[in-house]
């Protein structure tokens, strides 16, 4: 069934553990032309209601309904942000914001929903492969956490399906990763893919390599990490900055990229992603040089007897930062673009 179109002006949101993006959309202008848009630091607010009220108080547009993509599972209209102390309920949000209706959906479901509408300017190619019309599409997104979703073709259009695959058990692919798994098991109750393949996970790789003698931490980096709100950004910048590169950070990023490639390949195999694999989230666009260096695709295609099949898979990085926001708006507007 096609999405039911609305004539109402909608509030859409991409609700993440680090940042929240909100925008207002009108049916006549579609998702690529928001009437108003703003970004907020999520942890500065006690709830989504408080954040949304602040945003709406600064705009003149009357909003009638809302759709929020949230970084966590949505069950019976309720959701808890995986990396924030927020609990959200569709009915309570509608009452608090004086809206006719509110819809919550998993943020990766939102991103997946807009993937078929992305143009060549919204993505970068990691592997051209060979697209099979109507083939399933995999979406994996390392941001604050690790999100996963997929799309299937119903004969008329693609349908997006949420997943919490990022919380499945991490499986090492070599001796070094095996030692890291044992290292993290002594510190964490459960070692999932998210623990080593996300903004929250990258410092775990760094800590393992540093503590096990795989590189020295320069004094200047130690000072930056101690002062930083986001150690992941410091590590990534130190790995990619040619004028002040840190070998320990470079090793960390290489390991991260290999782990991401392996899990992206796992997801592609599980859903038979002949329609392509899309990397979303905030991290991939920031580490494009590392993703294009060959480590990612080597890990992605290293699947034994399935390696020839994996080499045919198209792989893209979603470079448009508004993809999740557009996906949430699309759900409310009932329009693919």
Please characterize this protein's 3D structure.
It is a single chain. The chain is of the alpha/beta class and 337 residues long. It has 2 domains: 10-113 and 322-333, ATPase, nucleotide binding domain (Nucleotidyltransferase, domain 5, 2-Layer Sandwich); 119-319, Hexokinase, domain 1, CATH 3.40.367.20. The chain is built from 13 helices and 14 strands. It has helices at 48-57, 90-97, 107-114, 175-185, 202-211, 219-227, 231-240, 247-271, 283-286, 288-291, 295-301, 307-310, 323-333; strands spanning 10-15, 19-25, 36-41, 65-70, 74-75, 78-80, 87-89, 101-106, 123-127, 137-142, 146-153, 158-163, 276-279, 315-318. Strand 6 (78-80) and strand 7 form a beta hairpin.
Features:
337 residues, alpha/beta, Nucleotidyltransferase, domain 5, Hexokinase, domain 1, 2 domains, six-stranded mixed β-sheet, five-stranded mixed β-sheet, 14 strands, globular
Task: Write a concise synopsis of the structure shown.
The protein is of the alpha/beta class and 337 residues long.
Question: Layout of SSEs?
Answer:
Blueprint: E1 10-15, E2 19-25, E3 36-41, H1 48-57, E4 65-70, E5 74-75, E6 78-80, E7 87-89, H2 90-97, E8 101-106, H3 107-114, E9 123-127, E10 137-142, E11 146-153, E12 158-163, H4 175-185, H5 202-211, H6 219-227, H7 231-240, H8 247-271, E13 276-279, H9 283-286, H10 288-291, H11 295-301, H12 307-310, E14 315-318, H13 323-333
Helix pairs in contact: 3-13, 5-8, 6-7, 7-8, 8-11
Strand order of the largest sheet: 9-14-13-10-11-12
CATH C-level class of the largest domain is Alpha Beta
What's the structural domain tally? Answer: 2
Average pLDDT for all residues: 94
The Cα radius of gyration reads 20 Å
The stretches of 5 or more residues where confidence is low (pLDDT under 50) are none
The CA-CA distance between the termini, in Å, is 17 Å
Helix content: 25-40%
> Helix and strand string, N-terminal first?
EEEHEEEEHEHEEEEHHHHHEHHHHEH
Sheet with the most strands, sense and barrel status: 6 strands, mixed
Globally, the shape reads: globular
Total number of beta strands: 14
Structural class per helix/strand content? alpha/beta
- Total helical segments: 13
As for the CATH topology of the largest domain, it is Hexokinase, domain 1
Report the sheet-strand fraction.
15-25%
Any guess at the CATH architecture of the largest domain? 3-Layer(aba) Sandwich
């Amino acid at each position: 069934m096609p999405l039911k179109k609305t004539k109402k002006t909608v509030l859409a949101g991409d609700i993440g553990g680090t940042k929240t993006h909100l925008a207002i959309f009108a049916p006549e202008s579609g998702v690529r032309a928001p009437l108003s848009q703003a970004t907020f630091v999520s942890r500065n607010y006690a709830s989504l209601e408080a954040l949304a009220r602040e945003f709406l108080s600064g705009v003149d547009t009357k909003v009638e309904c809302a759709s929020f993509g949230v970084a966590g599972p949505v069950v019976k209209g309720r959701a808890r942000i995986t990396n924030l102390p927020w609990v959200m309920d569709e009915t309570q949000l509608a009452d608090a914001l004086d809206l006719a209706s509110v819809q919550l959906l998993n943020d990766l479901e939102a991103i997946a929903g807009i993937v078929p509408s992305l143009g060549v300017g919204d993505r970068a190619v990691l592997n051209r492969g060979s697209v099979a019309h109507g083939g399933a599409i995999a979406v994996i997104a390392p941001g604050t956490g690790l999100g996963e979703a997929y799309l299937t073709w119903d004969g008329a259009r693609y349908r997006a399906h949420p997943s919490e695959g990022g919380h499945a058990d991490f499986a090492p692919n070599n001796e070094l990763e095996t030692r890291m798994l044992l290292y993290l098991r002594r510190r964490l109750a459960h070692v999932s893919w998210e623990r080593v393949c996300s903004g929250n996970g990258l410092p775990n790789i760094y800590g393992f390599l540093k503590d096990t003698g795989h590189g020295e931490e320069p004094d200047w980096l130690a000072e930056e990490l101690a002062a930083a709100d986001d150690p992941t950004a410091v590590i990534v910048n130190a790995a990619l900055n040619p004028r002040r590169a840190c070998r320990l950070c470079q090793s960390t990023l290489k390991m991260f990229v290999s782990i991401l490639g392996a899990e992206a390949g796992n997801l592609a195999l599980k859903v038979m992603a002949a329609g392509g694999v899309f990397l979303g989230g905030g991290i991939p666009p920031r580490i494009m040089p590392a993703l294009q260096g060959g480590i990612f695709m080597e890990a992605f295609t290293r699947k034994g007897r399935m390696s020839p099949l994996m080499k045919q898979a198209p792989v893209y990085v979603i470079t448009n930062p508004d993809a999740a926001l557009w996906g949430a708006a699309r759900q409310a507007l009932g329009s693919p673009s």
